[in-house]
Amino acid sequence: MNLAIFDLDNTLIAGDSDYLWGEFLVEQGVVEPAYFAENDRFYQEYKAGRLNIGEFLRFALKPLSEHALEVLLDWREQFILEKIRPILLPAAQDLIERHRAGGDLPLVITATNRFVTEPIVGLYGIEHLIATSPELADGRYTGDFVGEPCFREGKVKRLEAWLQEHQCGLEGSWFYSDSHNDIPLLSVVSNPVAVDPDETLAAYAQEQGWPVISLR
Q1: Strand partners, 107
Q2: Dist. CA 69–CA 126, nearest whole Å
Q3: Beta strands at 174-177 and 105-113: parallel, antiparallel or unpaired
Q4: Residue 113's beta-bridge partner residues?
Q5: Which of 11, 97, 150, 155 has CA atoms 20 to 30 A from the CA of 184?
Q6: Is 5 in a helix, a strand, or coil?
Q7: Residues tagged active-site
Q8: Per-residue b/e over 89-121, b at no fewer than 16 CB within 10 Å?
Q9: Distance (Å, rounded) from C-alpha 119 to C-alpha 187?
Q10: 8 φ, ψ to 5°?
Q11: What is the pLDDT of residue 111?
Q12: Cα atoms found within 13 Å of the Cα of residue 187, Cβ hemisphere only
């Protein structure tokens, strides 16, 4: 069984779930309006390839630590309905189903934390998710994260650990991503595919002869 690996943000969905979660928290009055400007700064740094992932995670996970889990789950349900369902991509679902029909195992790997992404991945019927893991202690998020952040080279390390755990390899594997931040992982799979890529990835994909597709 070959792996069909997908990035999530701006690949399987037409937007960035981390960014949209921050926007949602501002709109709900959960955080101060100044949060949005800081959220946007981190997003621009991500797109430019300058993101300090530790600094960002401390920022992004702090609101989770300030509220009870049941309240967070209610907010997340509303977030999925208002922000995520409108940007699901039918072409992405079709691509996933084509891989399934061919006997491949779909897997999502994303830098965005598991609290935000797990239900989104579920909307596509994908069971396997590798994501940055927020720390949970005594039924509450602590604002910290556990393990390797699932970002850039960290995605490769997290995937290697997953492969070892599931006793499978990357022979015949696919990886679909929009971001130049994913070049480390795109470079180790059998079939790298750039999806609606940013300018840097588009240029790199052309140099490498990688396929470029759109799911929009």
Answers
A1: 5, 128
A2: 24
A3: unpaired
A4: 132
A5: 97
A6: strand
A7: 7, 9
A8: beebeebbeebeeeebbbbbbbbbbbbbbebbb
A9: 28
A10: -105, -65
A11: 96
A12: 13
CATH code, 17-86: 1.20.1440.100
174: amino acid identity, one letter = W
| One-letter-per-residue 3-state SS of 110-171 | EEEEHHHHHHHHHHCCCCEEEEEEEEEECCEEEEEEECCCCCCHHHHHHHHHHHHHHCCCCC
Question: Could you read off the pLDDT tens digit of each residue along the chain, which spans 216 residues?
Answer: 899 999 999 999 999 999 999 999 999 999 999 998 998 899 899 989 999 999 999 999 999 999 999 999 999 999 999 999 999 999 999 999 999 999 999 999 999 999 999 999 999 999 999 999 999 999 999 999 999 999 999 999 999 999 999 999 999 999 999 999 999 999 999 999 999 999 999 999 999 999 999 999
Provide the token pair at 113.
């934390």
Is residue 85 within 8 Å of residue 123, measured between CB atoms? yes
Q: Give the amino acid at 68.
A: A
Give the fold, CATH level 3, of 3-14+88-213: Rossmann fold (3.40.50)
Is 171 strand, coil or helix? Answer: coil
The 8-class DSSP code of residue 88 comes to: B
Q: Which residues face 213 on adjacent strands?
A: 195
- What's the pTM? 0.96
Residues of the chain with CATH 3.40.50.1000: 3-14+88-213
Residues in the chain: 216
Residue with tokens 């059998």: 190
Amino acid (one-letter) located at 144: D
Q: What is the CA radius of gyration of the chain?
A: 17
